[in-house]
Description:
37% of the residues lie in helices and 26% in strands. The protein is an alpha+beta fold. Zinc ion binds at residues 93-95, 135, 139.
Amino acid sequence: MPLLPIRLFPDPVLRVECPEVTVFDDDLRQLAKDMVATMHAAPGVGLAAPQVGVSTRLAVVDVSGGEDASAIHVLVNPRIVEASGEELDSEGCLSIPDFTERVKRPTQIQVHAQALDGSSVELEAADFFARAICHEIDHLDGVLFVDHLRGLRRERARRFLKRMSRLQQAQEQAREQNRERAPQSQTDAAAGA
Ligand SMILES: [Zn+2]
């Protein structure tokens, strides 16, 4: 099963408020399957569809990191119906590699979602599992964990993301230059042959 390229900040797809899934078909099941494989390979404990460039309300979570098949959760159209408690703990994101910061999240949540066949799923989650689900649901609303930061933590994130944006831009420019050069090198190769 193919691994999907993970979109990195500042890709605008990460800022889209995703529409609900309304069609529960083979394409959706394949996307979920590929997302689980991509999450495990990264490795990560959660992945949302916009992180692989698809604006739809689908997320996968596995806080066992691939150790326990029963820990894999595929959440379609998930929403938090109840939240309680509060904890400040470290968080990171596959779309913002090499940056972690402490974010406040509820410690207990109740989630309503759908399964891949469209049936209703009720889920209770606590602590790190709850944190992972909150993080992924945020992605479906175009929200990144750094958006929750305030004060000095926000400033640290802002500086990191600025550097990351510049790097992404430079890499994109290099890719474009390579594309422009490509026909030339083909000609060279033909001439050499
Ligand atoms: Zn993330």
